[in-house]
Amino acid sequence: MSGQERARFWRTPALPGVDLLKARYVTHRFPPHAHESYAIAMVLSGVEEFAYRGTVHRAGPGSLSTLNPEEAHDGYAGVPGGWSYRVLYPSVEFVSGIAAELVAGHGTPCFPETVTYHRPTVALLRAAHDAAERGDDLASSTLARTAFAALLSGHASRRPADAPHRDDDPAVRRAREILHERLVDPPTIEDLARAVDTRPFTLIRAFKAATGLPPHAYLNTLRIIRARRLLQSGTPPAQVAGDVGFTDQAHLSRHFTRTVGVPPAAYQRAGTYKTRA
Fold first, then answer.
1. Which run of H or of E encompasses 260?
2. Which of the ends of the chain has fewer CB neighbours closer than 10 A, N or C?
3. Strands (E), 12-72
4. CA–CA distance from 110 to each of 71, 92, 188 (Å)?
5. 3-class SS of residue 142
6. Which of 266, 273, 277, 183 is nearest to 233 (CA)?
7. Do 194 and 183 form a contact (C-beta atoms < 8 A)?
8. More confident: 251 or 103
9. What's the whole-model pTM score?
């Protein structure tokens, strides 16, 4: 990360299930990856570009980007000076809990629009993020729930229970299961294709169509997700590297920093408290 760049990642007991990021990036590029959580970003200055759902989006000052869980995207500067932003990463459980209080019905909330400019919603989210940074637990918890209620009411829909799922292809479904099972010792693409009774190039195309990522990038996403959980539990980074299949701590650090935006040690320092029940 260059001297022009800075990032702070943290968690607070006042918002269980929500990670927070405040950052400025210039040359940093996020590789294609996905999150277990939603990603709700507010650009403060500059422009971020990112590929998502087959389109390259530009998010400028005052914008609100809403990315759904498990959907592939990248991220990089859209202007020479880079961009600064604040991001909230609420878990599916956190968002679904607020949605359940607002309206009855089934299905997980999703955001059909990717980049919008809606000042009242951005202002509420920014106020919640600022309060969390100050350590004001009552304000951050109150404002965050108010902000997400506004976000859900104005920008979200519900994914029907019978909507097409990315695992409708049985070969892709089984390939994903194998990669989950063999995080530390993954197969070659040839072995993976044989295991699901298809051909390598056929599997690569189907896998990317279903998940937005080729198998090797999907594997790295799984490893980073697992690494985040272990780091939050207090596991030393050197042990985390081996536990998730990276060759050493430097290998973990390189992939983790590219994907999350901060190094593993900084992420771990953000807080290792136990989430409240």
1. helix 249-260
2. C
3. 18-25, 30-33, 39-46, 48-52, 55-59, 64-67
4. 11, 10, 34
5. helix
6. 273
7. no
8. 251
9. 0.89
CA 7, 127, 74, 58 dihedral sign is: negative
Q: What would the pLDDT profile of 214-243 be if each residue is shown by its tens digit?
A: 999 999 999 999 999 999 999 999 999 999
Q: And the tokens for 114?
A: 């990717």
C-alpha 230, offset from chain centre:
16
Instruction: Report pLDDT digits (tens) over 130-159.
Output: 999 999 999 999 999 999 999 999 889 876
From the CB of residue 202, how many other CB atoms can be counted at a distance below 10 Å? 12
Instruction: Say which residue the tokens 């210039």 belong to.
Output: 26
- Pick the closest to residue 139 from 155, 154, 127 (CA basis): 127
Place of tokens 């498990």: 70
Strands of the sheet with 30-33, listed across from one edge: 30-33, 73-77, 48-52, 55-59
Structure tokens at 81: 């000076």
Task: Say how many residues make up the chain.
Answer: 277
Residue partners of 41: CB distance under 8 A and separation at least 6: 48, 59, 64, 65, 67, 85, 86, 87, 88
Residues 6+ apart with CB under 8 A from 277: none
Run of H or E including 226: helix 215-232
Angle 81-6-150 (CA atoms, 0-180°, nearest 5)? Answer: 85
DSSP-derived secondary structure letter, 184:
S
Residue 129 token pair: 């993020």
Can you tell me the distance from the alpha carbon of 97 to that of 234, in angstroms, rounded to the nearest whole number?
27
What's at 158, amino acid-wise?
Answer: R
- Distances in Å between the alpha carbon of 274 and those of 96, 114, 128, 232, 264? 21, 32, 22, 9, 18
Dist CA 138 CA 126 (whole Å): 15
